[in-house]
Design goal:
Shape: globular
Strand order of the largest sheet: 9-8-19-18-20-21-24-17-16-12
Length: 635
């Protein structure tokens, strides 16, 4: 059995839909709430089937111990299958949960959420050191496990020592305000910052699994961008022509920005020898799960970043202090991480993803700090141009206590730059290869956070990979290394744009992608077949991605479909337009949900407007046939 124990201000749930294995319940159990409670998220596993009573006894004992430590007399039992991939039968799971409920009820006020139902829930974790704990319960005679829940899903998964350390590392959470003050999370009023509140709850609870699909999943399908690939491993997606276009444009944009910043683009292998002495040490310092494969009797792993290839390349290079800072970047299509099944959903968290990975070799810590500042600003600008603004994400800054004491000004400047409170995590002891990192985290409609841009100061890997440069005195020295992903995973950028659009729709705004990322930038709708020749003439005057809806449908239906595809500019052409040579344009960005903004302009004026909106961004041609009548449907 796996337990995730959260001490909370409150937990509440509401059933939404029953699954085929749902237990029958009374109306009173379809929703529930407990305040000042210990929530026991519970996954009953196949090993518990041998002796359910023993599993109940041990689980109850652990829950009682933690309840005494956090001083609460209220328990919420919450079935949570995502904690394990080796679940028991539903019958045994319900038996164990009911047994735990009965045993605990002798000492505590107990509520149990029903088994087998899709449920929406909200939990407010208190955030003190004992407020989030995990336990693995094993029957006698099976291998004992530590308090860290590690779900080993299949033979291919390799769990690094750093990932294990991440679960046991003691950290301190604070809120840093732009005035430089550090505040206790519990005493800081997060009410004016609802997204930061959600992010804080997400980070401290460490609950990564989702119980229902976030809005972007429906959107990525309806917009024909991407979908799940049942013929592959979970977390590997298929991208339709429109999705491939959006993905490619963001990739090219990030590479262009990195090149302008002075980075050299390289390419490195997808797989590496797991027993290579240097790589083996690095694997244990990076908190990620790996895919492993066998090749010619050698155990290989699929890369989860471009670090290995670039560092091995740096090792073989001749580098002078005059070359520093030295920057290299690779657009990793793909990087691979064996994320746990319950965490995989849409484009938010994948097992195969595209990540721009830039590394910078610096001449000591002073140059590294200066580069860190520049790359922090670079990441802000990259996301801004992708369409994800400062108010769309929350900032997390993580560091060791020693580094913070020596570099307070740098850390405070990061909060000042975004001009809002940020979440801080501080370690007394360094568990990882970095002393400082930040992430920009997008919080979606389900209050789940996903990291986008990040920069890290690495103080280990120059030594590990034997990377040196020749200093001004002709002697060899180790550089300080920066890791930077200017945008984070490309798929996550698309996820964030779609989730943002979904949330804006709820607020009464019209959803859309930035014009430079819109697969169709202009849709021309001829009123009848006789207007198609003029529509073709207009399309040739527009220097953008333009298509023509020549299908035998009503004008209203064509316009509505263009709206459902989020086309930024819709041009309707009838007799008047043919006679006057102008066009009737609906501008999506300036329209309300029930009030379309229409203007009568020339094709040249529309083309100039789009050119101005997309200036400085990469361009690719229309990814599908120009005429909609000959296009296939992908979804």
């Amino acid at each position: 059995m796996q337990l995730l124990l959260i001490h909370s201000d409150y937990i509440e749930y509401e059933t939404k839909k029953q699954t085929p294995v749902a237990e029958k319940i009374e109306e009173s159990l379809k929703s529930g709430r407990l305040e000042e409670a210990l929530t026991a998220f519970t996954a009953v596993e196949s090993v518990d089937e041998a002796n359910p009573e023993e599993a109940i006894e041990k689980a109850v004992s652990e829950i009682e111990k933690v309840a005494a430590q956090v001083k609460t007399n209220r328990i919420m039992l919450y079935p949570y299958a995502h904690l394990s991939s080796d679940l028991s039968s539903p019958k045994v799971a319900v038996q164990v949960l009911k047994g735990m409920e009965k045993a605990l009820s002798a000492k505590f006020e107990v509520k149990r959420a029903p088994f087998g139902w899709y449920k929406a829930f909200t939990v407010s974790c208190k955030g003190h050191p004992l407020s989030e704990l995990s336990r693995s319960i094993r029957p006698e005679g099976t291998e004992k496990s530590s308090c860290k829940v590690v779900a080993v899903e299949e033979k291919e998964e390799v769990v690094s020592e750093a990932l294990k350390a991440e679960g046991t590392a003691r950290s301190y959470w604070r809120i840093l305000t732009p005035d430089g003050e550090l505040h206790e999370v519990e005493s800081f009023d997060l009410t004016p910052y609802p997204k930061l509140q959600q992010f804080v709850n997400y980070e401290i609870s460490k609950s990564r699994a989702v119980e229902r699909a976030p809005p972007h999943v429906e959107l990525m399908r309806r917009l024909e961008l991407a979908d799940y690939e049942p013929g592959s491993d979970s977390g590997n997606m298929r991208y339709y022509p429109k999705g491939r276009l959006v993905k490619s444009l963001i990739e090219n944009y990030v590479l262009d920005v990195a090149t302008d910043f002075g980075a050299m683009e390289v390419e490195t292998p997808l797989m590496y020898d797991m027993n290579h002495p240097t790589l083996k040490k690095y694997l244990d310092r990076f908190p990620a799960r790996q895919y492993s494969i066998e090749s010619d009797k050698r155990q290989m792993f699929l890369r989860f970043a471009a670090c290995f290839g670039q560092f091995l390349m740096n090792h073989d290079m001749t580098i002078s202090y005059k070359n520093l800072p030295l920057r290299m970047i690779e657009m990793t299509r793909y990087s691979f991480r064996k994320e746990q099944r319950g965490e995989l959903v849409g484009l938010r968290r994948l097992r195969a993803f595209t990540m721009p990975d830039m590394h910078t070799l610096c001449e000591g810590m002073d140059q590294a700090v200066n580069q860190f500042k520049e790359q922090y600003d670079l990441c802000i600008n990259v996301l801004e141009n992708v369409g994800i603004h400062i108010n769309d994400y929350e900032v997390a800054i993580r560091f060791t206590k020693d580094f913070y004491e020596s570099n307070k000004e740098l850390v405070v400047s990061m909060a000042k730059t975004v001009n809002k409170p940020v979440l801080v995590e501080m370690w007394d002891t360094r568990f990882f290869y970095f002393v400082l990192k930040f992430e920009f985290n997008f919080v979606d409609a389900l209050a789940k956070a996903s990291a986008l841009s990040t920069v890290q100061i690495d103080v280990e890997n120059a030594e590990r990979y034997d990377i040196s440069y020749v200093n001004a005195d002709g002697k060899l020295e180790r550089p300080t290394v920066l890791h930077c992903s200017p945008s984070g995973a490309i798929e996550r950028c698309i996820y964030a744009l779609l989730e943002k659009a979904a949330m804006e729709t709820e607020e009464g705004k019209v959803p859309m992608l930035p014009v430079w990322l819109s697969p169709t930038q202009v849709r021309i709708v001829p009123v009848s077949e006789k207007h198609i020749p003029f529509a073709e003439e207009v399309s040739k005057k527009l220097d953008c991605r333009v298509d023509i809806d020549d299908r035998d449908l009503s004008i209203g239906k064509k316009v509505r479909e263009a709206g459902r595809e989020w086309v930024p500019y819709v041009v309707v052409i009838g007799d008047r337009e043919v006679e006057e040579g102008s066009i009737n344009v609906t501008i999506r960005a300036e329209s309300g949900q029930d009030k379309p903004k229409k203007v009568q302009i020339t094709p040249e004026e529309l083309s100039a407007r789009i050119k101005e909106e997309t200036a400085g961004k990469p361009f690719r041609k229309l990814p599908l046939a120009k005429y909609l009548s000959v296009r296939p449907k992908f979804f």
